[in-house]
Design brief:
The structure holds two protein chains of two kinds. Chain A is an all-alpha fold. Chain A has one domain. Chain A contains five helices and no strands. Chain B has one domain: Up-down Bundle (AhpD-like). Chain B is built from eleven helices and no strands. Chain B is an all-alpha fold. Classes of the chains: A mainly alpha, B mainly alpha.
Chain lengths: 108, 193
């Protein structure tokens, strides 16, 4: 077995920090933003755009979340969680495909 | 920037550092740098660790190859700030601007080696479609790319799929070519720490 890639360790540290460390947004909310699931409007629209079509985020999406009572620091954290969440799903899916491709190669 | 805290919510020491960067580079501090200095304990510090390791850590890919991957992922995400920053950095790292522009204009005909082409193709699909299949990975292996090189490329893709999203969500200011040139020099001299 290869020793684990340092980048994967650094990735896990990052994810653990944003989801489980101290923050201004609750852990439950950070987790929901990371997973892009279970959020209420107007946060839902903003977080879904960050995850799936970040280019379409508007000043209005940000303003709506701030007007709903979230602070700038809470919004900062939740947007960070959403971006890392989506990039993590891509990363883990691809690493899983790589692991499967390597297993397949060994059998041949 | 769309959040006031990302423009002005810094400690005195960080503001002094920004003034110094401005004085030395004769360019405003790029929004990408501001972001990692904002409450670095939450995001900036752990993100710099993985980005530095992916972009400058040990790898069979050259620094130029990894900067091109960053530019290519950013182009797939249509993230203007990151395309500008990493196109300039890749061109400077390779000492070959034409090669970078060719790869971004038409990957299939660009004068780059097949392992890099196959890897960029896979990263483009992962970025656009959010997933790749085992067959997609096998195609990269068949082009002569090692397992470690694929892992390295996926870490670059992670870093820039994160950064591209934050650049667009927070509304990074997109500066002109001189600022991207100054940024490229900095990233090649100092890396992402």
């Amino acid at each position: 077995m290869l020793p684990e890639d340092k980048k994967r360790t650094a990735h896990r540290t990052l994810v653990t920090r944003i989801l489980e460390g101290d923050g201004r947004a609750s852990r439950a909310q950070r987790r929901a933003a990371f997973e892009n699931a279970g959020l209420a409007e107007p946060l839902r629209t903003l977080i879904d755009k960050v995850a799936r079509q970040p280019r379409r985020v508007t000043d209005g999406d940000i303003a709506a979340v701030l007007a709903s009572g979230e602070s700038e620091d809470q919004l900062f954290e939740l947007v960070v969680c959403a971006a890392i969440g989506q990039a993590t799903r891509q990363y883990e899916t691809a690493l899983e495909a790589l692991a499967q491709a390597m297993t397949g190669q060994k059998k041949e | 920037m769309r959040l006031k805290i990302l423009d002005s919510g810094y400690s005195f020491g960080t503001k002094v550092l920004f003034a110094l960067i401005h004085a030395v580079s004769r360019q405003p501090v790029p929004d990408a740098a501001k972001l990692v200095f904002y409450r670095p304990d939450f995001y900036g510090a752990p993100m710099k660790e993985i980005t530095q390791e992916a972009m400058r850590g040990p790898s069979a890919w050259s620094v130029g190859d990894r900067e091109l991957m960053a530019a290519f992922v950013s182009q797939t995400n249509e993230c203007a700030f990151c395309i500008g920053a990493h196109t300039a950095t890749a061109a400077r790292a390779y000492h070959d601007e034409a090669k970078v522009y060719a790869a971004l204009a038409d990957l299939e005909t660009a004068p780059i080696e097949e392992p890099l082409r196959a890897t960029l193709r896979m990263l483009g699909k992962l970025t656009a479609e959010q997933a790749v299949t085992t067959d997609d990975i096998r195609a990269v292996l068949a082009a002569g790319v090692s397992r470690e090189q694929i892992e390295d490329a996926l870490a670059v893709s992670f870093a820039f799929n994160t950064t591209d999203r934050l650049a667009d969500a927070f509304g990074f200011f997109v500066p002109g070519p001189k600022a991207f040139e100054a940024g490229a020099k900095f990233l090649l001299r100092r890396g992402y720490r």
